[in-house]
């Protein structure tokens, strides 16, 4: 999901974006600012994508109808098409246009918090790092509306309020969640929690240290805490993430920079929200 005017909100005139290697590159017009990328070269995105497919294989069947909420530049949506019949929505017209340029046709703009689909349209809804940008009750009601009875949601959100930084504000995050809070908001909407755990536990201490250092030196730096450019280090961390993903299905992790969950709409729920 690309929040409208989000990353550019405080320094709009210094940034732009371009298409490079089928990825959307947000780049700095002045050397003072670092590159901010979304795509294959980040640590979290490919790791989170692998986790998504492990969860799909565990909780869904191939060939299902999937809606990717907050499809952004379309990388997840593109790969979801190999698992089932995938469609995407986003509130950014730039993101929708970019998806179409990369050959994705079933992508739609969200207007007034309404998805352009009938009730009971999808077996699975994915919402990776989306809910934190919204009033969670509003988007969860809409997700529930388009899900078939018994349909599932796979979602990730940023964890731990103590880890809130300026970067969250730039990305237009409304909050970071505790596991208890996330369970509560899903249950209030009538979902059953099938799986929930923190992930990226190995990044918690580095993240806190980096943020404390930035705070101590009053660093006015609008880049992510994990802008990893060293390929070897990136491979090592991706391997650690792989090991963690194996463990997360054995026991839930008590801490992590993100929370991942799988929830289910009641099989008896045929309610229609207008």
From TrEMBL:
Domain Methyltransferase type intervals: 67-154
Pfam families on file: Methyltransf_11 (PF08241)
Top-level taxon of origin: Bacteria
Assigned keywords, A-Z: Membrane, Transmembrane, Transmembrane helix
Keyword Metal-binding: no
Keyword Membrane recorded: yes
Name this protein carries in UniProt: Methyltransferase type 11 domain-containing protein
Residue ranges crossing the lipid bilayer per the database entry: 190-210
Organism, scientific name: Candidatus Woesebacteria bacterium RIFCSPHIGHO2_01_FULL_38_9b
A GO term, aspect molecular function: S-adenosylmethionine-dependent methyltransferase activity
InterPro entries referenced in this protein's UniProt entry, alphabetically: Methyltransf_11, SAM-dependent_MTases_sf
Entry-linked SUPFAM superfamilies: S-adenosyl-L-methionine-dependent methyltransferases
